[in-house]
Design a protein that fits this description.
The chain has one domain. The chain is an all-beta fold and about 100 residues long. It contains no helices and eleven strands. The strands form five sheets. It has a three-stranded antiparallel sheet, with no helix packed on it. Helix content is about 0%, strand content about 55%. Strand 2 and strand 3 form a beta hairpin. It starts with a strand and ends in an 8-residue tail after the last strand.
Length: about 100
């Protein structure tokens, strides 16, 4: 599980600066699962599949300017689960003069 937080540095014109509060980075990935499988049916036929699952990817978040121009952390909105299944069949034709 990967929790990614970020902080920005704001500098004023006189050389002094301040760090913002930590906020959620767009690469924050709470729940991920990647699975891959392959099987050779015959010497020329290969079957493979890939399954991906992800949940809780942030869409909005970061910093907004609050009263007095101070940066405050914006609320985080997250998307629903993402699921994907890729299936593939590969066939190789072997010829004597070309392939």
């Amino acid at each position: 599980m990967l929790y990614v937080k970020e902080s920005d540095f704001f500098s004023s014109g006189n050389g002094a600066g301040v760090f913002s509060p930590y906020f959620v980075n767009p690469e924050d990935q709470r729940h991920n699962l990647n699975a891959f499988a392959t099987y050779r049916v015959t010497p020329t036929v290969n079957v493979s599949g890939k399954a991906l699952y992800g949940a809780g990817f942030p869409v909005t978040g970061g910093l907004i300017l609050g009263p007095g121009g101070t940066p405050i952390v914006a609320p985080v909105s997250r998307v629903g689960p993402y699921e994907r299944l890729d299936l593939r069949v590969d066939k190789v034709w072997a010829f004597k003069r070309w392939s």
